Amino acid sequence: MTTSQLFNFSSYKYSDSLTVVGISFCTAIVCEAISWLLIYRTNSYKSLRSSIDKAAKKLETMKTETPNSSSSSVAKVKISNKKSKTKKIDRVETSLKESSRDLSLFKFKSGAVVALVLFVVFGLLNSLFEGKVVAKLPFKPFGIVMKMSHRGLHGDDVTDCSMPFLYFLCSISIRTNLQKFLGFAPPRGASSGLFPMPDPKTN
Amino acid sequence: MKEGKSVKFNLQQQNHQNGHLSPFKLAKLLDPDASWDKDQLGDVLHWIRQAVALVCGLLWGAIPVVGGVWFIAFLLISTGIIYGYYAMILKVDEEDFGGHGALLQEGLFASISLFLLSWILVYSLGHF
C-alpha cells in the first residue's frame, strides 16, 4: 500500500469509524473546556479538592502510624490512646466523606451542561450512522456487549459493529485519559475506584 | 547523600502540589530506592497501562488476531507488566499504597477501552 493510498480515508471500507473517533475526540475537548469553565477554575472546586486531598493524606498517615510500645506496663493509657486515635480517624473520615459528597454535588450541577452536549452529539451521530456498520469486531461479542455493538444493525453477523459501541469505547478511553492528562481527574481520596477493595487494616 | 535525596523529594512534592505531574527523570522510574507518593505511583501505573493497551491493540489489529481469547491475553499481559514493574523493579511495599488491588486497578477500565478501540480500528481499517 502506498502512502497516498494509506491516507486516502475514503478508500477504507470502514472509514466511518474514523469519523466517529474524530467527533468523539472533539467532543471530549469541548466537554473538558466546558467543565473547566464551569467547574475546575472555580474557587469552590479548588478548595474542596484541596481539603479532600489533605484529609485523604491525613487519614492514610493516621491509619499507618503504629503506636509506640516502649512501655507495656500502662495498659489503661494504651487503651484510652487507641480510643482517642479511633475517634480522630472517624472525624477525619466523616470530614472526607462530607467533602466528597459536596464535590460530587457541585460537579453534578455543572455537569448537566456537559450531559446536554453529549446528548446532542450522540443524537447527531445516531442520525448520521443509524443502521450502518462502522467497524468490524475481531471477536464475537455476547450479552450486553452484543446488544450495544449490534444495535440498529440488520443481519446476523454479530461481528458487525454499530456506532453506539464504538462511541462508548471512544468516550471512555479518550475522556478518561484527557482528564488525566489535563489534571482534571477526580482526587483518589474521593473515589474508591471501579472495583473498590476493603482496607485490610480495618478488618 | 540523604540531604540531596530529601531536597529532591520535597521539590518534586512541591511541583506535584501545583496540580501537574512533575517531569519525572527516567532514572526515578527505574530506581528501586526512590520515594513514591501514592498519587505519583498511581499516575505512572495508569500511563503504563494505557501504553501497553495501545501497543497491544495496534499489534493485535495489525497481525491480525481474532477471538475473545486475545482479550484475556491482553489482560494477563498488562496486569503482569504492572505487577512486575511495581513489585520487582520498584520493589514498593503494596501495603503502603492500598494493597495489590488498588495498584492493579489503576487505569484498568480506561486501558480496556483503549485496547478494544485500537484493536477494532486497526483490524477494521487494515484488513477490509
From TrEMBL, chain A:
Keyword Chaperone on entry: no
Single GO BP term: endoplasmic reticulum calcium ion homeostasis
Domain of life the protein comes from: Eukaryota
Keyword match Transferase: no
Gene Ontology MF term list: calcium channel activity
Record PANTHER family: CALCIUM LOAD-ACTIVATED CALCIUM CHANNEL, PNAS-RELATED
Protein name: Calcium load-activated calcium channel
Species for this entry: Lithocarpus litseifolius
TrEMBL record, chain B:
Location of the protein in the cell: Endoplasmic reticulum membrane
The keyword Transmembrane is annotated on this UniProt entry: yes
Biological processes, Gene Ontology terms: mitochondrial respirasome assembly
Main location: endoplasmic reticulum
GO cellular component terms, semicolon-separated: endoplasmic reticulum membrane; mitochondrion
Family, similarity comment: Belongs to the EMC6 family.
Protein name per UniProt: Rab5-interacting protein
Topological type in the membrane: Multi-pass membrane protein
TM region positions: 69-86, 107-126
Top-rank lineage group of the source organism: Eukaryota
Keywords assigned by UniProt, alphabetized: Endoplasmic reticulum, Membrane, Transmembrane, Transmembrane helix
Originating species: Quercus rubra
